[in-house]
Automatic annotation (TrEMBL):
This is DUF655 domain-containing protein. The lineage of its organism: Archaea, Thermoproteota, Thermoprotei, Sulfolobales, Sulfolobaceae. InterPro entries: DUF655, NA-bd_OB-fold. Gene3D superfamilies: AF1531-like domain, Nucleic acid-binding proteins.
Length: 205
């Protein structure tokens, strides 16, 4: 595992602190413009320096574009986020899940047992043994094609919200299994966590 984790090409702006963050644990962030951002693929939280004033909250930024708009400095955890960043995190996750619907639907089609007694799908909120059995039976008949298809055939509501809650749980490091969020070595809890990385597997085919 890389100390800095995989590189996130696309990030979303969660907060823009134009005068710096006096509460930041990094002394060099206290009095200069600072961004808190979320990576699109691995949900890695970072702090970055803006290279232009023309950056908006919730903006999606391509780190490979020229000239660059930001310079990533450090990786951070959920506890480092400002109140504004935490509010925008929820909205940003909603946007990412919507735009990556096909990948998340594929997760429902491909998820496997993690242990003899625990299936990956059971880590999702509101998915118990009975619902798990229905999901496995339905996907065996034919693969799911959309969130609505899952909801209609399985009888559950708010698949997008279920996924959002799970990703938030992982970002907060409240479970040792990480289905979607990449752990970083600088995180004190990383050594106790198990990265499953379903979206990464799906992107790789």
């Amino acid at each position: 595992m890389s100390k800095k984790g995989p590189r996130e090409r696309y990030v979303y702006v969660l907060d823009f602190l134009r005068d710096g963050n006096p509460l930041d644990r990094h002394s060099w962030h206290k009095n200069k413009p600072l961004l808190q951002v979320l990576g699109e693929d691995y949900f890695i939280l970072m702090e970055a320096f803006p290279l232009t004033d023309l950056i908006q909250l919730e903006q999606r930024i391509d780190r490979d574009q020229e000239p660059p708009l930001i310079k990533v400095d450090v990786l951070i955890g959920y506890d480092d986020l400002t109140a504004v960043a935490r509010d925008n995190l929820v909205k940003t996750l909603d946007r990412i899940i919507t735009e990556k619907e096909a990948q998340f639907v594929n997760f429902f089609n491909r998820a496997e047992p993690l242990t003899l007694r625990l299936h990956a799908l059971e880590l999702l909120p509101d998915i118990g043994k009975k619902t798990l059995r229905t999901i496995l039976e339905e996907r065996k008949r034919s693969p799911f094609t959309s969130f609505k298809d899952i909801e209609d055939r399985v009888g559950i509501k708010g698949v997008k919200d279920i996924l959002k809650k799970r990703i938030l749980t992982e970002i907060k490091r409240e479970d040792k299994y990480l289905l979607f969020v990449y752990p970083i070595e600088s995180d004190k809890k990383a050594q106790d966590q198990k990265y499953i990385g379903y979206l990464e597997r799906i992107r790789q085919g």
